[in-house]
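ok trying again, last paste got cut off:
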Amino acid sequence: MALRLASRKFSSKFLPLLSSTSQLHSHATSFGFKEVREEEKSQMVSNVFTNVASNYDLMNDLMSGGLHRLWKDRLVSKLSPFPGMKHLDVAGGTGDIAFRILENVNSVKRRAIQDPLNDHIQEETQIYVCDINPNMLKVGRNRAVERGLREDKSLIWVEGDAEALSFEDDSMDGYTIAFGIRNVTHIEKVLAEAYRVLKRGGRFLCLELSHVDIPVFKELYDYYSFSIIPAVGELVAGDRESYQYLVESVRRFPNQDKFGSMITEAGFQKVEYENLVGGVVAIHSGLKI
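nice, full thing came through this time. structure:
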């Protein structure tokens, strides 16, 4: 299956597309199709991911037919990791993206190890995995141990909030967030923090479930989302409600163009997106220049 199905580029002309989803609301926000108070949402989302943590990998495989692995590979290939980089992966508690980045960096080092001009390969790569949910981080740490990886200077696990990162300004070469940004309370705060921590020339990449607008495919996808995924969640994980929320949260997330305009508004340039599988997921990217 060809992964690259569509691509768009953005400029300031998309700024008028900003909708109410990009504005701060002092009292109400969405939790799936429900309206909840802002101060309640983060705890409700935390409960969801606490519930799904132990079955996260299995359910991802079942829900996507294993395609999520290819989508994550595509995300990392667009990042183009390099030895000595300092990278931040947000909402990446299970380590899926971080492991891929580290493997990619090690592959580059192996190819370049005999080239005396590549002094930079001796520099220490630092990959920070930041997640607000300790249960997800626990899954990631356990997976790292299974892979023979230990927490050292190359792989660092951090419990933290995407809306208020603890990292210094202009400190990261790259920033990724996969299947996490639609669960935050304020998307624009996450984007602002991503811009703040990136160095000049640093790249922002977001892999997220998105919006399908191909007529027949959209009807099939909606049926699968609302009828099949929650049922599978109940059967496999004993948790229908969490997966019902996950499906609903996709529909409340801004579409590809609107989200692209939000990234532009945050200060990023050369903003573009790539649709995968007809828009089931999209990879948005931008540069801090």
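cool. The chain is about 45% helix and 20% strand. The radius of gyration is 19 Å.
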